[in-house]
Amino acid sequence: MTKALVVATVISAAVSAGAAIHSGMQQAEAAEFEQQQLQEQKELEAISALQEEAEAKRQLFSTIASQEVGAAAAGRSLGLGEDQSAMAIRRDATQKSTQTIRNIKLFGQSKQRQLGLGIQQKGVEASAAKTGGFLKAGASLANAGVGVAKTGFFDPKGDK
């Protein structure tokens, strides 16, 4: 193998190694960007769940207030001694609202878990991309070294 061919092999391996590292870093950067997007989405979902919960509570309080106003206008009280149908209506509204609030919380927690898993996955992808880029670079350089060694170009006994 001529000296020029050895130099070309080494340069090619170095370029290939650099490209592998660059590719791995770009893939890692993309995964980290997606990870950040998921984190922001997770935060927005938490806020949204709190807003939905607050709205459900507001609707419950509004329903109870409307019932009390209606009862007061009819000359009845929804406090002690209220009639059974008014109590049943209030209890039913409270139970439905409580279940709605519970569902909102559970759904919000489920979204939070899903997004949290996605965030972790993107972190793993970023790390794997970096590691993969460096491993490909190392393999490229090692292959070039093996190729040059097989030629005997650097063999002290050889006269190349």
Features:
mainly alpha, single chain, 2 helices, 160 residues
Run of helices and strands: HH
Overall mean pLDDT: 87
By DSSP (H or I, 4+ residues per run), the number of helices equals 2
Helix content: over 70%
Shape designation: rod-shaped
Q: Uncertain segments of ≥5 residues (pLDDT<50)?
A: none
Q: Mind telling me the C-alpha Rg?
A: 34 Å
The number of domains: 1
Query: What is the SS-derived class?
Result: mainly alpha
Compute the number of strand runs: 0
Q: Percent of residues in beta strands?
A: under 5%
Question: In this structure, how is the largest beta sheet organized?
Answer: none
What does this structure look like?
It is rod-shaped and about 115 Å long. The protein has helices spanning 3-73, 84-151. The longest helix is centred in the N-terminal third of the chain and has 71 residues, at 3-73. With 160 residues, it is mainly alpha-helical. It contains two helices and no strands. The model has no long low-confidence stretch (mean pLDDT 87). The termini are close together. It has one domain (3-151).
Secondary-structure map with pairings?
Blueprint: H1 3-73, H2 84-151
Helix pairs in contact: 1-2
